[in-house]
């Protein structure tokens, strides 16, 4: 800093220095806001892609189809099993209220089984685990089943946007037992990881999934 600069700044009062600082922060804030707006859609797509943490479809000893959307997951499982034949194990002990409204008392696992049967999978290769009512409980139930059957490589199939949380929930405990996991995705019919923010269901699903990830971190870590 030269003498003239030093003289200039030394004449400023603290009030004037504070005002200059606030003005600088305002300009910086405007710049950051413009930067965020320019790249907003990139960030939104990244948020969706992060959740969709699927592996490449491949041969496994058994595919565990998690409870939830039995239609989408059942179809995805059937497609995988026709290409890579193995046992299919349906999980999920919840009773969907929509089905109960029609007079049927079926668990998620039983509904997935029906979907598999309707899509050409032989009943002799379908098995049920119908007690777990959450992803964490499913991880415990599946781990015990895999150990008892001495599986070393299994598929975990669920909705695409659940897979990041499932990795957090499943991966470490299965690796400790020497069991390799392959995470398989059932695509959503109404939105994609790149377009979730354009769809009401996508918005609700994505925000809900990130909230669940935080909840699982605190509850199960």
| Mean model confidence by pLDDT | 86
SS-derived structural category = alpha/beta
Task: Give me the strand/helix succession.
Answer: HHHEHEHHEHEHEH
Count of alpha and pi helical runs: 9
CATH topology of the largest domain: Rossmann fold
Strand arrangement in the largest pleated sheet: 3-2-1-4-5
Total beta strands:
5
What is the count of structural domains? Answer: 2
What radius of gyration results from the CA coordinates? 25 Å
Description:
With 221 residues, this protein is an alpha/beta fold. It folds into two domains: 12-49; 52-187 and 196-220, HUPs (Rossmann fold), CATH 3.40.50.620. It contains nine helices and five strands; from the N terminus they run αααβαβααβαβαβα. It has helices at residues 3-10, 14-38, 40-51, 70-83, 97-101, 108-118, 135-148, 163-176, 200-220; strands spanning 62-65, 87-91, 126-129, 153-159, 180-186. Strands 3-2-1-4-5 form a five-stranded parallel beta sheet, with helices on both faces. α7 runs parallel beside α8 (163-176). 31% of the residues are buried. The model has no long low-confidence stretch (mean pLDDT 86).
Write the layout of secondary structure elements.
Blueprint: H1 3-10, H2 14-38, H3 40-51, E1 62-65, H4 70-83, E2 87-91, H5 97-101, H6 108-118, E3 126-129, H7 135-148, E4 153-159, H8 163-176, E5 180-186, H9 200-220
Helix pairs in contact: 4-6, 7-8, 8-9
